[in-house]
Amino acid sequence: MVSSEKDVTGYYSLYPFAHYAFFLPFGNAGPALLKRSGWYIGAGGGFLHVQYNFSGNDEKENIFAADFETGFLLFGFLDVSYTLRTNFKSASHKAAVGYLYRFGK
Protein backbone atom coordinates (compact mmCIF):
# COMPACT_ATOMS: atom_id res chain seq x y z
CA MET A 1 0.00 0.00 0.00
CA VAL A 2 1.21 3.49 -0.77
CA SER A 3 0.06 6.13 1.70
CA SER A 4 0.91 9.69 2.62
CA GLU A 5 0.05 8.80 6.25
CA LYS A 6 2.88 7.89 8.62
CA ASP A 7 2.91 4.67 10.64
CA VAL A 8 0.77 2.62 8.26
CA THR A 9 2.36 -0.80 8.66
CA GLY A 10 -0.13 -3.15 7.03
CA TYR A 11 -3.19 -3.22 4.81
CA TYR A 12 -5.36 -6.09 3.57
CA SER A 13 -8.69 -6.03 1.74
CA LEU A 14 -10.97 -8.60 0.14
CA TYR A 15 -13.89 -7.54 -2.07
CA PRO A 16 -15.99 -10.40 -3.48
CA PHE A 17 -18.64 -8.90 -5.74
CA ALA A 18 -21.45 -10.30 -7.91
CA HIS A 19 -22.88 -8.33 -10.81
CA TYR A 20 -25.69 -9.10 -13.25
CA ALA A 21 -26.51 -7.09 -16.37
CA PHE A 22 -28.91 -7.14 -19.29
CA PHE A 23 -27.54 -6.44 -22.78
CA LEU A 24 -29.58 -5.00 -25.65
CA PRO A 25 -27.80 -5.17 -29.03
CA PHE A 26 -28.12 -2.22 -31.38
CA GLY A 27 -29.15 -4.52 -34.22
CA ASN A 28 -27.90 -7.01 -36.76
CA ALA A 29 -27.18 -4.57 -39.60
CA GLY A 30 -23.72 -3.41 -40.58
CA PRO A 31 -20.20 -4.76 -40.05
CA ALA A 32 -19.52 -7.64 -37.64
CA LEU A 33 -17.97 -5.38 -34.98
CA LEU A 34 -21.03 -3.12 -35.00
CA LYS A 35 -23.28 -6.17 -34.49
CA ARG A 36 -21.54 -6.76 -31.12
CA SER A 37 -22.35 -3.21 -29.97
CA GLY A 38 -25.20 -2.40 -27.61
CA TRP A 39 -26.49 -0.92 -24.40
CA TYR A 40 -26.38 -2.61 -21.00
CA ILE A 41 -27.81 -2.00 -17.55
CA GLY A 42 -27.02 -3.93 -14.40
CA ALA A 43 -26.84 -4.12 -10.64
CA GLY A 44 -24.67 -5.91 -8.16
CA GLY A 45 -23.70 -6.33 -4.57
CA GLY A 46 -20.61 -7.13 -2.60
CA PHE A 47 -18.92 -7.33 0.74
CA LEU A 48 -15.68 -5.49 1.53
CA HIS A 49 -13.49 -6.77 4.36
CA VAL A 50 -10.64 -4.40 5.26
CA GLN A 51 -7.92 -4.87 7.86
CA TYR A 52 -5.14 -2.35 8.41
CA ASN A 53 -2.67 -1.21 11.03
CA PHE A 54 -2.31 2.52 11.62
CA SER A 55 -0.12 3.93 14.42
CA GLY A 56 -0.08 0.55 16.17
CA ASN A 57 -3.87 0.17 16.18
CA ASP A 58 -5.40 -2.73 14.28
CA GLU A 59 -8.56 -1.69 12.52
CA LYS A 60 -11.09 -4.00 10.86
CA GLU A 61 -14.08 -2.99 8.82
CA ASN A 62 -16.82 -4.91 7.01
CA ILE A 63 -18.88 -2.99 4.46
CA PHE A 64 -21.81 -4.17 2.37
CA ALA A 65 -22.17 -2.28 -0.91
CA ALA A 66 -24.44 -2.22 -3.96
CA ASP A 67 -23.90 -0.68 -7.37
CA PHE A 68 -26.00 0.22 -10.37
CA GLU A 69 -24.37 0.53 -13.77
CA THR A 70 -25.31 1.47 -17.30
CA GLY A 71 -23.20 1.85 -20.40
CA PHE A 72 -22.54 1.16 -24.04
CA LEU A 73 -20.40 -1.56 -25.56
CA LEU A 74 -19.07 -0.27 -28.88
CA PHE A 75 -17.37 -2.37 -31.58
CA GLY A 76 -17.29 -5.40 -29.31
CA PHE A 77 -14.58 -4.05 -26.95
CA LEU A 78 -14.93 -0.32 -26.07
CA ASP A 79 -16.93 0.34 -22.90
CA VAL A 80 -18.38 3.74 -21.97
CA SER A 81 -20.14 3.47 -18.61
CA TYR A 82 -21.57 5.20 -15.56
CA THR A 83 -21.66 3.56 -12.10
CA LEU A 84 -23.44 4.58 -8.91
CA ARG A 85 -22.20 2.73 -5.80
CA THR A 86 -23.56 2.94 -2.27
CA ASN A 87 -22.83 1.42 1.12
CA PHE A 88 -26.27 2.64 2.30
CA LYS A 89 -24.66 5.46 4.32
CA SER A 90 -23.12 7.39 1.43
CA ALA A 91 -22.87 7.14 -2.34
CA SER A 92 -20.20 7.62 -4.97
CA HIS A 93 -20.25 7.57 -8.74
CA LYS A 94 -17.88 7.31 -11.67
CA ALA A 95 -17.84 7.63 -15.43
CA ALA A 96 -15.39 5.38 -17.24
CA VAL A 97 -14.05 4.48 -20.67
CA GLY A 98 -12.18 1.21 -21.05
CA TYR A 99 -11.82 -2.27 -22.49
CA LEU A 100 -14.62 -4.79 -21.95
CA TYR A 101 -14.97 -8.44 -22.86
CA ARG A 102 -18.53 -9.73 -23.06
CA PHE A 103 -18.87 -13.47 -22.58
CA GLY A 104 -21.43 -15.20 -24.76
CA LYS A 105 -22.84 -14.40 -28.15
Written account of the structure:
By secondary structure, the chain is mainly beta. Strands 1, 2, 3, 4, 5 and 6 form a six-stranded antiparallel sheet that branches. The protein has one domain: Porin (Beta Barrel), CATH 2.40.160.20. The protein is elongated. It is 4% helix and 66% strand.
- In whole angstroms, the N-to-C terminal distance is 39 Å
Spell the H/E element sequence. EEHEEEE
> Which class in CATH terms?
Mainly Beta
How many DSSP-defined strands? 6
Taking the sheet with the most strands, its summary is: 6 strands, antiparallel
Q: What's the CATH topology name?
A: Porin
> Structural class, from helix and strand content?
mainly beta
| Outline | elongated
Number of helices: 1
Q: Mean pLDDT score, rounded?
A: 83
Q: Would you identify the CATH architecture?
A: Beta Barrel
* Rg over CA atoms: 19 Å
Helicity level: under 10%
Can you tell me the residue ranges where pLDDT is under 50 for at least 5 consecutive residues? none
- Tally of separate domains: 1
